[in-house]
Give the backbone structure.
Amino acid sequence: MNGPTMKEVFAAPAYPKPRRLRQTWLKDVGYDEAPQYIERMGLTELEDFLEVAAERLDYVKIVTSQVIFSPHDWLKRKIDIYRRFAVEPYLDHSFFMRAYQRGVVESAMEAGRELGFGVIEFMNTTDEVSAPQWKAWRKLAHELGMRIIQEHHPLYHWDRSLAPRAATADEILRGAAPALEDGAFAVMIDHEEFDLQGENTAREIGKVVDALGLERVVFEATSPKEGPMLWHDNLTLYFSAFGEDANVANVMPSQAMYVEEMRSPFWREKRP
């Protein structure tokens, strides 16, 4: 006898991909655990994990140390597995930073594309990197067939001599504007910006959301290496301030299934 499924019994909501809102972006640290992480994601674990979690995931950041030091063919297989489950891998801002520090941005982008990455994340910088140079890198990304994410960080991430300070909404929007004009599909906001904003978060980040639309903004959570429950505090803030459909990033595999429970009133419903 074929009975109903659990999802049918509980009328569990579904949010089919591709979707513009309610996205969850994963962080994959591979085997680069010590001393900061306690979970890993090799190929065997990955297939099993994605059979369960893939329908809840949209993009995945494969950390830079893994991209640089893992075997080439192993990485290609990992990227292929993610794409088979409709989860899109991307190169994050630290990949760009390391390439810039070594003067190999162009060849690093080409090598990333050869591995199978179709998305790269750039970050805001000081005037040390000129507007024409940025435009050339974005042009190269498009020529390589790579889509662009623009991430906003407090500027001291780029120049440690600068004092940490909160950005205004206008500063965030001005910093993202050239990338958006050149086709960036999302603006990611680093968790440290929220730490600096404090009680001004709803006002200043809200202006960014109003200007761009919630579907083009991604809020990045704190990694567990910085505190075991800070990610939970971040997501609670994002969903309470911007709604349960907000796009969130930097979610660890062990957190992935729980994010939807944090979002959804479905789990909080009580019926007589």
Q: What stands out?
A: The chain has a mean pLDDT of 93. Residues 20-263 form a domain with the TIM Barrel fold (CATH 3.20.20.70). Residues 95 and 101 are 10 Å apart (CA to CA).
